[in-house]
Amino acid sequence: MPEEKITYFEKGGPANTEETLRLAVSEARRLGIKDIVIASSRGDTALALKDAEGLNVTIVTLAYGQKEPGQNPMSAEVRAQLIEKGYNVCTAAHTLSGVERSFSTTFGGAYPVEIMAHTLRMNGRGTKVCVEISAMAVDAGYIVGGQPVVAVAGSGAGADTARVLRPEASSRILKTKVDRFICKPID
C-alpha cells in the first residue's frame, strides 16, 4: 500500500475548504470509497465540492431550531440546488449534543455524550464533527454503518478536516472506527 500522507494546515477555517474537499475526493477514489459525508450549515461548503461524479455525497446540515426556533441556516433554494446536483441532504438531531446539551445547560455538569464529544475534539473540532455527521447519515439511511466513508468537517466555518472512518448508527456510536487522517489544522 502506498505511504499515507496527512496534510496539516497552519490555521483552520474556510481558506482550507477547496483543498480539503479536493483531498477528500482524491482519497475516496484512491481507496475505492464511494461515500462522502460533508458538514455544511448554510451550504457554502457543499456548493464548493467539485468533481464528485460517481460518489454518493451526503450533506449534513444543522438541525432546525439550533439558531432560531423553526429555522434552518440552509435556505430552501440552496437545499434544492444540492438535491439537483444529486446530493443527499440530511437534517437531523445532532448525535453528540442534542438532548444532552439541554440537560447540561439547564442543570450544569457534564454528561457522557458531551465527554465523548470533548474527547474527540482532542484531535481537532473537525474530528468530532466527522464522527457526528457520519452517525447522523447512518441514522437517516444515507450510508451504511460499518462501511468506510470519507467525512469532511471544519473548525467553525468551511472545511479543514477530513477523515476516513467506519461510522455506526448513534445507538452504536462507540463501535465507530476512525481509520485515517487525511487533513486537519494544527491550530
The major β-sheet equals: 7 strands, mixed
Query: Major sheet: order of its strands?
Result: 1-7-6-5-2-3-4
Beta-strand percentage?
A: 15-25%
Which overall shape is indicated by the principal axes computed on the Cα atoms? globular
Instruction: Give the H and E element order.
Output: EHEHEHEHHHEEE
User: Share of helix among residues?
Assistant: 25-40%
Mean pLDDT, as a whole number?
A: 89
Give the end-to-end Cα distance, rounded to a whole number of Å: 30 Å
Number of strands: 7
Please describe what this structure looks like:
The chain is of the alpha/beta class and 187 residues long. Helices cover 34% and strands 20% of the residues. It has a seven-stranded mixed β-sheet, with helices on both faces. Strand 5 and strand 6 form a beta hairpin. Helix 5 crosses helix 6. The longest helix has 15 residues, at 17-31. The radius of gyration is 16 Å and the shape is globular.
